[in-house]
Write a structure and sequence with these properties.
The protein is α/β, with parallel strands linked by helices. It is 48% helix and 16% strand. The protein is built from eight helices and eight strands, in the order ααααββαβαββββαβα. It has helices spanning 3-8, 12-28, 34-41, 45-57, 77-114, 127-133, 181-188, 209-216; strands at residues 61-66, 70-75, 119-123, 141-146, 154-155, 158-161, 172-175, 197-198. Strands 5-6-4-3-7-8 form a six-stranded mixed β-sheet. Strands 1-2 form a two-stranded antiparallel sheet. It is elongated and about 70 Å long. The protein starts with a helix and ends with a helix.
Amino acid sequence: MSNADRISTTGKADEAEITLGILNAVHENERVTQRSVAQDLGIALGLANAYLKRCAKKGLIKVSQAPTNRYAYYLTPQGFAEKSRLTAEYLSDSFQFFRRARNQCIEALRLAGQRGWKRVALYGASELAEIACLCNAPEVDVVILIDPTDNHDSFAHLPMVGSIEAAGEIDALLLTTLTDPQATYDALIEHFPATRVLVPTLLRVIESKDMIEGAQS
């Protein structure tokens, strides 16, 4: 696979994140290697190599031969400017995500309160779950977090269990997983009433017909 093919398989958000990660790595250590970049960013070695070459081609980094057949990477003035731009963009996106997530979690919890569901569980340990833990709604308590893939005993200030059965008495679930939320939702409603699963819009989950009809009734 060519460098262009490797990069074309990543989305724009991933592309910006990888580029920022590489520029940060070069800024922190000019003796950084392709392998260390790949390990730090959690990407394939070939993809790290492709992005390093791309950054060099765009004039963001300068590559020079170092002793023992290794390379040294330097951030150019253009690279510093791009690093600053991507950092600001990343922070802006993060704040926008926080605001959207907070507003949608509050809205979901208020809906639970309106329907008389007082004990709500979060489903899925994630940044979204952390935000949901900070949200409050009248007469609603977020009492526990459920995540079958995590064996910790607690999350934020909540007790944590691995199944709905272990969660005890709960009235509704707020979906907070960020890992394939559609598949998680589809599996979840096989064991829990779809009308009692609250889903933030940002997860882009297509909800069941029962849930839509319940919301309209």
